[in-house]
Amino acid sequence: MSFFKEFKEFATRGNVIDLAVGVIIGGAFQKIVNSLVENIFMPILGMVTGKIDFKEKFVQLGSSDTPVTTLAQAKEKGVTVLAYGAFIQTIIEFILIAFCIFLVVKFINTMRKKKEEAPAPAAPPAPTTQEKLLMEIRDALKNK
């Protein structure tokens, strides 16, 4: 089998295509979650905690001749900082994505369980005495 033919079989197999679709949808879902956290959760959290913008929270490491007041200034001037606000935001994004994945997996497992628990078709009822008698007559006629 040629290399390209083997690759074509591999690439067109159902699992690979399903995986590719999952990765693409996952990337799009991550953008949605990031937007949800950045534009909805963090502003609400900032409002509750006294109008704090967590994304801009940082600690300047070491001494610097020029103090900086924003994270953008620190990056522009090359000041070493510990950007703990961005880290907090990333943790919230991770927790939200993990929770959504948990819900999807739980839903899929519930559906699989229902499918597995589907009742098996009922066994055919036992023949009645009349049917048994007719079967005996049939068998007796066959043997003659």
UniProtKB/TrEMBL annotation:
GO MF entries: mechanosensitive monoatomic ion channel activity
Superkingdom assignment: Bacteria
Compartments, record wording: Cell membrane
Topology within the bilayer: Multi-pass membrane protein
GO cellular component terms, semicolon-separated: plasma membrane
Transmembrane segments: 81-105
Alphabetized UniProt keyword annotations: Cell membrane, Ion channel, Ion transport, Membrane, Transmembrane, Transmembrane helix, Transport
Pfam family, one: MscL
Assembly mode: Homopentamer.
Entry similarity comment: Belongs to the MscL family.
Physiological role: Channel that opens in response to stretch forces in the membrane lipid bilayer. May participate in the regulation of osmotic pressure changes within the cell.
Protein name in UniProt: Large-conductance mechanosensitive channel
Organism, scientific name: Chitinophaga agri
Organismal lineage: Bacteria, Pseudomonadati, Bacteroidota, Chitinophagia, Chitinophagales
Gene: mscL
